[in-house]
Write a structure and sequence with these properties.
Helix content is 34%, strand content 28%. The two termini are 68 Å apart. Strands 4-3-6-5 form a four-stranded mixed beta sheet. Strands 7-8-10-9 form a four-stranded mixed beta sheet. Strands 1-2 form a two-stranded antiparallel ribbon. The chain has six helices and ten strands; from the N terminus they run αββββαββαβαβαββα. Among the domains are: 61 residues, Roll (Ubiquitin-like (UB roll)), CATH 3.10.20; 90 residues, Translation initiation factor 3 (IF-3), C-terminal domain (Translation Initiation Factor IF3, 2-Layer Sandwich). By secondary structure, the chain is α+β, with helices and mostly antiparallel strands.
């Protein structure tokens, strides 16, 4: 076998000078597997061998699952590089961009693969992805805060004190959650005679809600009398910002 080994010559098939083969090779993270090599001693040559290589990003995870790190999609040998300080370096070779990222111990991320040449940036990709997710969640919270559901509360013109208090607390909770509240007093049959009392009840309800809400609409003419209250946006915004200040 020693004679066989000395008789064989190998040419390197994985090198930095061939960026089209693998997008990024790190000397400590390249794994080569030889599967079932079969040697013919009579001819002193390798008759069959299979070689496979897998590329890992700098944190040890496979980059195949993340298109932003898969530099094999870039066919051009030139890229437009942005460095880790977000400065435009300009057009450089792909191998130089990879080397700069390696020297900085950061990731080389594809921003615009369809551009000519493709745009890449040196960055901490995990941190970048975390910041994007955080911005997305913040935007979802803002959208949820701007979206108002309409909650309805019904009561009679002669509602007792306890039931009135229950509905008032419910209205205040809905308003704090950012929802509109429609308070309805339905006059049936001869109850229409007590219209003035129903109007007074609705006006008092608005007063008791206080600065949590402003009046958006009302109807005191029909039998189904109502007021529509909307949250006070200034107070609602302060309530949402207060937990952040405590953090």
């Amino acid at each position: 076998m020693a004679g066989l080994a000395s008789a064989l010559t190998f040419k390197p098939i994985l090198s930095r000078s061939n960026p089209n083969f693998l997008p990024y090779l790190h000397p400590t993270r390249l794994t080569i597997y030889l599967h079932s090599p079969t040697f013919s001693l009579s001819t002193s040559s390798v008759t069959s061998a299979s070689i496979s290589a897998q590329h890992f990003d700098r944190r040890g995870g496979s980059s195949d699952d993340d298109e932003a790190l898969d530099l094999s999609v870039i066919r051009s040998n030139k890229v437009r590089l942005i460095d880790q300080e977000q400065n435009m370096v300009g057009i450089v070779s792909k191998s130089e961009a990879l080397q700069r990222a390696e020297d900085s111990e950061l990731d080389l991320v594809i921003l615009s693969p369809e551009a000519d040449p493709p745009v890449v940036r040196i960055m901490d990709y995990n941190k970048y992805r975390y910041e994007l997710q955080k911005k997305r969640k913040d935007q979802q919270k803002k959208n949820a805060a701007n979206r108002m559901d309409l909650k309805e509360l019904k009561m009679g013109y002669n509602i007792d004190v306890h039931d009135y208090s229950v509905r008032l607390k419910a209205a205040q909770k809905f308003l704090k959650d950012g929802d509109k509240v429609k308070v309805i007093v339905n006059l049936k049959g001869r109850e229409n005679e007590f219209r003035a009392k129903a109007v007074e009840l609705l006006k008092q309800f608005q007063i008791d809600v206080g600065e949590l809400a402003t009046l958006e609409g009302k109807n005191f003419k029909d039998r189904n009398m109502f007021i529509v209250l909307v949250p006070n946006k200034i107070l609602l915004q302060k309530a949402q910002e207060q937990p952040k200040e405590n953090d």
